[in-house]
Amino acid sequence: MKVRAGFWRRLSRMRVASAGFVIFGIILVAALSAGYISPAPPDRINLDAALERPSIHHPFGTDPFGRDVLARIVHGSRISLGVGFLARTISLLIGLFLGSLAGYFGGRLDSVLMRLADITFAYPTLLLLIAIVAVVSPGMVSLFVTLGVVGWASVARLVRAQVLSVKDREFVQAARASGAGHSVILLRHILPQCLAPVLVVYTLGLGMTIMAESSLSFLGLGVQPPAPSWGGMISSGIAFMRTAPWLTFFPGLFLTLTVCSLNFIGDCLRDALNPRLAPVLAKPAGAVAEAPSGAKEGNA
Amino acid sequence: MLTFILKRLLLLVPILLGVATITFVLMYIVPGDPVRAIAGERYDEETLARMRTELGLDRPLVVRYVDFLGRLARFDLGRSFVTRRPVAEAIRERFPRTLILALSAMGIAVLGGVVIGALSAWGRRPALSRALMTFSLVGVSMPVFWLGLLLIYLFAIKLHVLPPSGYGGGSIKNLILPALTLSFASMATIARVTRSGFLDALGEDYVRTARAKGLGERMILGKHVLRNALIPVITIAGADFGSYLSGSVLTESVFGWPGLGRFIVQAILKRDFPVIQGAVLFMAVLFVLVNLAVDVSYGAIDPRIRSEGGG
Prior knowledge:
The structure holds 2 protein chains of 2 kinds.
Chain A: H1 2-32, H2 34-37, H3 69-105, H4 107-122, H5 125-135, H6 140-150, H7 152-166, H8 170-177, H9 182-218, H10 230-237, H11 246-273, H12 278-281, H13 293-298
Helix pairs in contact in A: 1-3, 1-11, 3-4, 3-6, 3-7, 3-9, 4-7, 5-6, 7-9, 8-9, 9-10, 9-11, 10-11
Chain B: H1 2-28, H2 34-39, H3 45-55, H4 61-73, H5 87-122, H6 126-141, H7 144-158, H8 172-202, H9 205-212, H10 217-239, H11 241-255, H12 260-269, H13 273-301, H14 303-308
Helix pairs in contact in B: 1-13, 5-6, 5-8, 5-10, 5-11, 6-8, 7-8, 7-11, 8-10, 8-11, 9-10, 10-13, 11-12, 12-13
């Protein structure tokens, strides 16, 4: 019975993962080719066609300015994915740099950096974001920089743990014995060993970051209108919930699909790359969900 | 156990200090003249001078920092720029509403999550089990604010059975939708954890032993499987408390729930810095304390955590 349960689990996981890849692939292609495939410019106002229900001409309806909702969603995917990728890359670079320094050199530097990570984790993520966004001027650049900086700690912890686990292995000792310097050892020999798990946190974090961007934009603290961010579109649709529910429904649906597909992909990468990592990385990937502290400390 | 708790308490000191410092630094790096940024377009020289003195901006940064920590120790969070009320007083008034919301959400999440997880692990029907797991995978990916709006649309606008928003003097009817919204992501996680806990426990030797000695299925599930499967659930429910705090910011905004989360958002839109600082700091400290309690209780349940000392 157990074997069968495992089999079903693996099978459904695989199907789930490929569904994730397909959905995310479609959204990614849409974002990259938004200018070509979008049925209309996202900001073309046509007051004669305001608040139209979904139809052949406007599959997702139109907003109070007569702008095509589908067009705005397609263009909004550029914002979500763009901010997400940029922010995650910033987190990745900071985390790789600080995490490998902490793991490789250890000592006081390590304890200072890890206490700093503790403090970052001590803040509920969305609150820290809100506190920062409250003081910097709102906009796309400050948004992805903020999201990127806030996300450094989880990457740094993971990289540190990976570096610690390989830095005394034979191939590193061999490199050291043959006279390689610290930077060569780190970059050529140690970091390549860390890339697989880092890829998993990158993917899972991407979903969280996109969710955080939308949450902030929904609160009016992120991407500012008239830019078609999904969170902002949902927020401005609230006033028309009774008469035009499609204004809130469709952007949210695409946000869910994006985050969901990224979580599927992340889960599958995690299992495929190393099943033993599962308990270390297992954490809810919702936007504001915090890692259970047990999992956080698993690799500390 | 006592040394474990003491160690965790000691670790708490630098973390709380760090959280306070970050909050302090953030609120004092407002680009440009902070006073002007706060006052916006409506400033006159008199107001600016008064605010400068109030913030102590004429004093050196270190003095201000020490002063800030000193006032924190006395739970003095300053006064709101807009209402002139002490921030601590406003937090005392609003926090209970957020707490009620968070606790109800946690109750729903634990109950719903355990039932869903247990059904999908035990109910050996692949179709049902897969449907439940898909629900839990999608559940963690759904934006809280969007889910809230969907529920409003369904239950308030279409079915007219529940009020769309507001506090309603604290009536249960007004609590249901926001609590359900806030519980959803956590419920999905708990369902997942319960399911794998159940599947693991079902394969353990003690279950086989229990079966071998002829215990009834109900007894095995209730006494042996459930109890062991629930240990991680307790931790998750506690650790998710932070997400309830963060999530309350969004949920309260959607439902017009007059708690601490909405208070923060309104303060940001008004650039009321003492309120933002105080309320955010309050939530962060609460989060740290709850996490500590979770760690300690986890150490009490699982001795292995204790001996590692927890990093």
